[in-house]
Amino acid sequence: MESLWFALVALMLVAYVVLDGFDLGAGIIHLLVAKTNEERQLVLRSIGPVWDGNEVWLLAAGGALYFAFPLLYASSFSGFYLPLMMVLWLLMLRGMGIELRSHVDDPLWRSFFDFIFSVSSLLLAVFFGVAIGNVVRGVPLNSDGYFFAALWTDFSVGPQPGVLDWYTVLTGLLALAALAVHGAHYVTLKTEGDIRDRSRRIASLSWYALIALTLLSLLATFSVRPQVIDNYKNGFIGWSVPLIVAASLGAMFYFRKQGRDLAAFLSSSAYLVGMLVGAAYGLYPTLLPASTDPAFSLTIFNTRTGDYSLRVGLIWWVVGMLLAVGYFTLLYRFFRGKVTLEEGEGY
What we know:
This protein is mainly α. It has 14 helices and 2 strands, in the order αααααααααααααββα. Helix 8 crosses helix 9.
């Protein structure tokens, strides 16, 4: 049962990264692809109906984590207290940047909130990448399963690392490049004219950075945590995940050159799925590795709640998931197609 809940939490995190990832990506490239107020309105309108709903998956994943693995929730949220507060503020600033820009008809006002939206989106992408890097690398857990991580120490990977070191900065840059490509494909899919052409060019340039950062991050991961290779030696997922990542990178390039915007966007989605599933599969059954002593690591076995709670929770998870999937299916069907300035909210 604990393995099933590991997969369910991972599934919700993957859904969040893929869906809110293009919102963040649109914010990252916002000031680069949109030169006029009308073009910036188009970027915001492309994500306007869905950006806040996409964040539900992050809340759902956090709730499921708290329910199924309460010790992990308590340990990680206390150890990463300051970074989590920073992420919370960035999420609020991003929402303010989207919703407040149109409240005053003044160019300076709009430019300020456009800047807030873009910078907060960029920093969130980096922070989420750094978070994944910390989970893969490990944190200084003690024998009670708790830790405190300073923002940085000496930028080296060791028994007492900070939140930021050379490895987590690398994974943060990888997340930034991946979401920039993902967002650029989405904006290309939803817009027309000059803004679509600029988005396509940014997707092309960011793709080369993504290739380099993917290779560097994989090599760094095998150096920092060679144990992840063990899970890849056996099973279908072990050899299929690298193939999915490689194929999706090639498909992004091919479909973008062909002008097949939907296929390019789906390819970047597949890349994100492959990378996240690969990270989860490499760590399993560990949830949070200990950089101090492997015996202190938090796993699905020593952090789980009781069997009865997991079984009852699974029933409610299925009900909630059916409602969520139904809602998002209707939402995306209703708002499919290109966006224009004659429809929707003003932004």
